[in-house]
Amino acid sequence: MQVKFRSAFVAFLIVSAVSMSAVASASAHEFEASKTGKLTDTIKLPVTFHLPGASVNAECAAGAEVTGTGSVTELKRKTLTTTVTYKKCEFVTGIRPFTAEWEVSAEGTTKLVKAFTIEVPVLLCKWKVVPTAGEESTVGFTNSKPVATVAAVRASKHMKFERLEGKEENCGKTNEASTWNESFTLGVEGGTLLWK
Question: In whole angstroms, what is the distance from residue 112 CA to residue 162 CA?
C-alpha cells in the first residue's frame, strides 16, 4: 500500500485564509506583536495524515485536543516558532500523543524544525518524521480586522517518513516522502499580531 503522509499546514491567526499567490513576490516582511510574551496555537480543524501502508487517513481531533505554544521575545520578528502537541489521534486504534515543532517565516515559507515520532502501539508501529532538503512550503499571509491577527495558508510540503519499529506489512515501507494537512490559529496572549 502506498504512503502519502499528507500535509497542508494552514496557519490561521484567528482569521480567514488567503491565496498563496499573494506572497509570491513578498520581500523584507516581518511579524509585529503589540507585546512580548506567550505565543498561543490552537488547531481549528481536524488534522489528517496518511500512515504508511494504510488505506484510510489518520486523524487528530481539533480544538483543545491539539494545542501549541511558543514565545514572542521581540516586538518585530522574521519568524515565529510553535511547538504543537497532538492528542486524541486515531488510526483504526489510538495513536500515542506526540509533539512537533514548526517555524513560519514572514517571507512566505514554513518548515518542520526537527524530527518527531508517531506511534500506533496496537499495530506495533513507530515512525520518525524528519525534515527533508527543500521541504519548505509556500505560505500566504493577510491581516484580520477588527482584531489584529495574521492568517496564513500553507501549500503541501513533503517530509521524510522513516519506520523505526514494526513490520512492513503493518507499518509500510521506510524512507518515503509524506505530506500533512492542518489548520491552526496563532495569537499573542493578551496582545495582537500583524504581518507587515
Answer: 15
Predicted confidence at residue 152, as pLDDT, reads 58
Q: Are strands 116-120 and 109-112 parallel, antiparallel or unpaired?
A: unpaired
Q: Is the pLDDT of residue 119 over 90?
A: yes
Q: How many domains does the chain have?
A: 1
pLDDT value, residue 146:
60
Read off the C-alpha cell for 60. 487528530
Q: What is the mean pLDDT of the chain?
A: 75
Query: What pLDDT is attached to residue 156?
Result: 57
Is 179 inside a domain boundary? yes
For residue 89, is it within any domain?
A: yes
Residue 107 in any domain: the answer is yes
DSSP 77-144: ESEEEEEEEE-SEEESEEE--EEEEEEEETTTEEEE-S-EEEEEGGGTEEEEEE--TT--EEEEEEE-
Give me the count of residues in the chain: 196
Res 11: pLDDT: 35
Q: Which three cell numbers stand for residue 127?
A: 515512525
Residue 1 lies in a domain: no
Burial class (CB in 10 A: 0-12, 13-18, 19+), 27: exposed
Which domain does 47 fall in, by range?
Answer: 8-195
